[in-house]
Amino acid sequence: MDFSLSQEQEMFRQYVRKYLQDVETTKIARDYIHGDINTVQQSLAGLNELGCTQLNIPEQYDGMGLGKLDLVPIFEELGAALVPGLHLETLALAAPMIEQFGSDEQKQTYLPSIASAEATFTIAWLEPGRSYKKQGIQLQAQHDAGSLLLQGVKTLVPDVELATHIIVPVRVNEQIALVIVESDTAGLTVSPLQSFDETRKLSQLQFDNVRVSTNQVIGQLDEGWAILNRGLLSFNAGLSSWLVGATERIVQMANEYAQIREQFGNPIGRFQAIKHRIVDMKLDLETARSLSYYANWTLETDAPDKVEAIVSARIFATQTFIRAAADNIQIHGGIGFTEEIDCHLYVKRSRFFENYLGDIDTYYDLAIDALGWTDVAAPTALPITP
Amino acid sequence: MDFAYTQQEEQFRLELRTWLEENLPEGWLDGTFNMPEEQAAYGQFLRDWQRKLSEGNWAAIAWPKKHGGRDATLMEEIIYHQEMVRVQAPPAINYVGLHMVGPTLMQIGSPEQQEKYIAKILSGEEVWCQGYSEPNAGSDLAAVQTTAVKDGDKWIINGQKIWTSFAHFADRCFLVARTSKGEKKHHGITCFLLDMNQPGVEVRPIIQMDGEHDFNEVYLNDAVAYEADVIGNVDDGWRVTIALLMHERTGIGAQVFSLEQQFDALVELARSVTTDDEALIEQREVRKRLLDLYIKSRGSLLNYYRNLTKQLKVGHPGVEGSMDKLFVSEVTKELFSEAISLQGHQAITWKQDAIYGDSYWQKNYLYSFGQTIGGGTSEIQKNTIAERILGLPKDIGK
């Protein structure tokens, strides 16, 4: 029995944490709010130098060939500092999908450039007025001389200006295909949208007969939905780590503030109304962490309970982050309500992620299905005891 | 990360499982055996069960071999809990003796005390209870008012204990009493190994809200203890008091594994209970509520394994046990509350008229209220976590 990150993984965490402390943690996010893309690009270069972008890329494609669990401390630290950018989308979604389902040519093209941080991926999935469900994907792709012509609109696409490539689920002859589109392709119009969470930029993308080679399709033309769902397992495992990291920073903020802020001649953390609230946050945090570690372990080992494990982690870590971010403001009192203190940045990000790439309500059904509860006749599966 | 059990651990599991299947009362595993309801017969049944366990060397596996244990590893203890929960083995009547008093005697007791008590604890010949809580000393244990006054070679003890589990079966009591008024309230405390079978000790039952009788009030009216019954030093009993409590924390595993089992039973309930010919589990809202509980009970198990890993590495239990205790007891309470809600108005039936499982759910729902109180209330656990893990300032009054 060993349910912990390895010494090497914890050591790597320290490198990433040290680096982010050196660049003043949420300063990157705050610079990005004010339109400074440069700081974000520098941070990506810095993280690349540390090896963050190479970790889970196979060695033959210039990566380190490490596992899913090695990404856990990195995502936790990125979450703690609210580092802007497409780290999750690139490392936990695009890279594993290309590695698992991409053609040799796609692997040769993209994996080494992800490892070197030259390629970054965003995903254009949602369409105006539509859901994340399969029927929500209506952007049409027509065959035309060995290419696909994309026509339609995608919306709420994150951080396009930071992306070299866009993964686009499209509809081809009633099937869903997953296409890689270069972000500067002709016919693509990017219109910025105001974002509630200013540490992530949003855009609407208009596709006017955007021509994409069929070589840019990941897997077969009818496999897009299945591949995307496999990719989402990896993404959600990574996201749950990110959320845990962010929540850990929140608990730390609340705890530190409660120790220095004095009222009635005492640090407010002496009052049970405050200290018990912080303990509740801490308990949820550690539970989210246990669930997310386990989720990433099931992903790494391809365990039979990976779907329910990963989705459970995503749901609980999301709910925990939302609650803790809100409680953090309450504990800070008036100062927590101001723009100056970071508290609000976490609240906004918690809502950004709440229903990102699949709403929580749908994820409930996914886990319920995986547990066999929709099959009324089936006996309860024996618990998979690790 | 590695959740695999070693071959040796699996072998241990198999050995225990085989022993249990061969030695549990006939009809136990298929649910046809009923434990005696009458108190004396019930007590005898539990004593017999413990004697059987000790004959198989299964009563106190963590004890050293020289005291009749197995020198079990921490992982073997975990497996032991898993297997005992799996067959829902009869409760250990001498829980206090086996898991608290025995280890404390080995740690702090004199050679004579060890000689006198340990073997009988193991065999179940002497059942122990824990004389800690008093009407005015619950969470604030150092406020004990029971007094022990020296009179020649005797100690004369007066006072009242409460919430004393199994005192109605107990032969001995690990008693905390005040022997002097110290500068601080946890000074001047002494621990005694008190004989329960004497005129000065009166046990009165406390009937719980679930109708069961686990606890008692113990009245001490000129009860007598001797010098040989003092464990540790006179007036320096607070550290003995705490030493005993530190051993108590190992019981969390059993609660965590029980929660897993109870959750599975809840899913079965949702499958079997129908309204208008529709099973509860067919309702999406029910499935969602089940998933929330699934996530928390998994979280409880995984938290436990994470803390266990730490314990395996550092070699002793940490304060994180408070987090496990808090979480598992709160989730257990939530689970049974949900089980009552899910059954709808039918849930208000009781005992033989209960619609499902002889009021298993109703009984456990009522019982679950005790779990966030006993062994340190949730509020006390929160103070401990706040002060010892988060480093928040001590509570007012400390």
TrEMBL record, chain A:
Signal peptide interval: none
Domain Acyl-CoA dehydrogenase/oxidase C-terminal positions: 223-359
Domain of life, per lineage: Bacteria
Gene Ontology molecular function: any one: acyl-CoA dehydrogenase activity
Family matches, as Pfam families: Acyl-CoA_dh_1, Acyl-CoA_dh_N
Names of the cofactor(s): FAD
UniProt entry keywords in alphabetical sequence: FAD, Flavoprotein, Oxidoreductase
Occurrences of domain Acyl-CoA dehydrogenase/oxidase N-terminal (ranges): 6-118
Gene3D superfamilies: Acyl-CoA dehydrogenase/oxidase, N-terminal domain, Butyryl-CoA Dehydrogenase, subunit A, domain 2, Butyryl-CoA Dehydrogenase, subunit A, domain 3
InterPro entries (alphabetical): Acyl-CoA_Oxase/DH_mid-dom_sf (IPR046373), AcylCo_DH-like_C (IPR036250), AcylCo_DH/oxidase_C (IPR009075), AcylCoA_DH/ox_N (IPR013786), AcylCoA_DH/ox_N_sf (IPR037069), AcylCoA_DH/oxidase_NM_dom_sf (IPR009100)
Family membership: Belongs to the acyl-CoA dehydrogenase family.
Protein name: Acyl-CoA dehydrogenase
Species in which this protein is naturally found: Caryophanon tenue
UniProtKB/TrEMBL annotation, chain B:
Xref: Gene3D superfamilies: Acyl-CoA dehydrogenase/oxidase, N-terminal domain, Butyryl-CoA Dehydrogenase, subunit A, domain 2, Butyryl-CoA Dehydrogenase, subunit A, domain 3
GO MF term list: flavin adenine dinucleotide binding; oxidoreductase activity, acting on the CH-CH group of donors
Stretches assigned to the Acyl-CoA oxidase/dehydrogenase middle domain: 129-222
InterPro entries linked: Acyl-CoA_Oxase/DH_mid-dom (IPR006091), Acyl-CoA_Oxase/DH_mid-dom_sf (IPR046373), AcylCo_DH-like_C (IPR036250), AcylCo_DH/oxidase_C (IPR009075), AcylCoA_DH/ox_N (IPR013786), AcylCoA_DH/ox_N_sf (IPR037069), AcylCoA_DH/oxidase_NM_dom_sf (IPR009100), Mycobact_Acyl-CoA_DH (IPR052161)
Pfam families: Acyl-CoA_dh_1, Acyl-CoA_dh_M, Acyl-CoA_dh_N
Gene Ontology CC annotations of this record: plasma membrane
UniProt KW keywords: FAD, Flavoprotein, Oxidoreductase
Names of the cofactor(s): FAD
PANTHER family for this protein: ACYL-COA DEHYDROGENASE (PTHR43292), ACYL-COA DEHYDROGENASE FADE29 (PTHR43292:SF3)
Family: Belongs to the acyl-CoA dehydrogenase family.
Name of the protein in its database record: Acyl-CoA dehydrogenase
